């Protein structure tokens, strides 16, 4: 299986959209927010530019709660829904899991799909350990929503959703499973 390098980031537009680009800077996958809503789920258009396919999904608002862990004291549980299903459940159903470690201020995610190594995601920033999130042993991860990705082409949609999930949520130990 051949892996390629990609970059994932917020588009910088005021509409919550995200894009994943190849090493030549060309968009390969994106989620375009079609209309910002305050009280209902937000419609997004997911575009796979390689396959020239589009799907529409409803993305729920991010919800964060505090959970109690015996060993760690307190930490955050944060999620949003994709078509009324918790994003972490969607990723689990697709077979994705990952291990997390940090290398200085670089947050590293080693990604697996159905137990097979399918790539890595890395991000960095000064907010990796943030006093505002002192109840979480690791603070808020990541900090800037810019990810360096190395994965196989067939895993681009899954990696995109993982990055979107990490960016939109208060990532915690609960999701490192």
Shape type: globular
Count of helical stretches:
2
Average of per-residue pLDDT values: 78
* Major β-sheet annotation: 9 strands, antiparallel
Order of helices and strands: EEEEEEEEEHEEEEH
Q: What is the share of helical residues?
A: 10-25%
Structure summary, number of beta strands: 13
Low-confidence stretches: 71-75, 126-143, 172-177
Question: What key attributes describe this structure?
Answer:
two-stranded antiparallel ribbon, mainly beta, disordered C terminus, 177 residues, 13 strands, 47% strand, 11% helix
Reconstruct the topology from this structure.
Layout: E1 3-10, E2 18-22, E3 27-33, E4 42-48, E5 53-59, E6 63-69, E7 73-79, E8 81-82, E9 85-86, H1 87-93, E10 96-103, E11 106-113, E12 116-124, E13 147-152, H2 156-168
How would you describe the overall organization of this protein?
- The structure is a single chain.
- By secondary structure, the protein is mainly beta.
- The protein has helices at 87-93, 156-168; strands spanning 3-10, 18-22, 27-33, 42-48, 53-59, 63-69, 73-79, 81-82, 85-86, 96-103, 106-113, 116-124, 147-152.
- A 9-stranded antiparallel β-sheet has the order 5-4-3-2-1-13-12-11-10.
- Strand 4 and strand 5 (53-59) form a beta hairpin.
- It is globular, with a radius of gyration of 16 Å.
- The two termini are 24 Å apart.
- The model is unreliable at 71-75, 126-143 and 172-177 (pLDDT under 50).
